[in-house]
Amino acid sequence: MSTIFSQIVAGDIPARVVYEDETTMAFLDANPLAPGHTLVIPKDEYERLNDVPEEVAADLYATLHRLVPAVEEAVDADASTVAFNNGEAAGQEVPHVHGHIVPRFDGDGGGPIHAVAGEAPDLSDDELDDIAADIDGRV
Ligand code: 5GP
């Protein structure tokens, strides 16, 4: 069973497509958080960011890079929040990687990306050092 976004790629479900190339596509979100709310996807179906092969990840970033100013200019936005819900626990509902470009406006009442997590943890310097070393050891 393919994802709803694969069905958009296949042309089986209509969408307001704003950009398409060999490996990526961008279209307006059906339930926009702001005018111009756009989703950028790899055409092939990968659930999470880490499932995306490196060359497709580069294409995906290039499309985001291209789309952000176009979206902002189209709706005369002051800024944009660009984010991925990466996994169910982070709020990902469609299991097909997609970057959200949400245009932002001065005084729009929204929050920064810092508002998305739960209560901020109180971590000691040692704990921070351990976490940094652990991440560094895995890349
Ligand atoms: P997620 O929570 O997975 O990060 O976001 C999924 C997004 O996809 C939501 O913002 C939702 O409005 C959007 N969406 C879900 N179904 C469709 C659809 O059929 N067409 C379009 N254009 N957007 C969709």
TrEMBL record:
InterPro entries: Histidine_triad_HIT, HIT-like, HIT-like_sf. It holds the Pfam family HIT. The active site is at H98 (tele-amp-histidine intermediate). Residues 4-111 form the HIT domain. GO terms for biological process: nucleotide metabolic process. PROSITE patterns: HIT_2. One of its GO terms (molecular function) is catalytic activity. A motif (Histidine triad motif) lies at residues 96-100. This is HIT family protein.
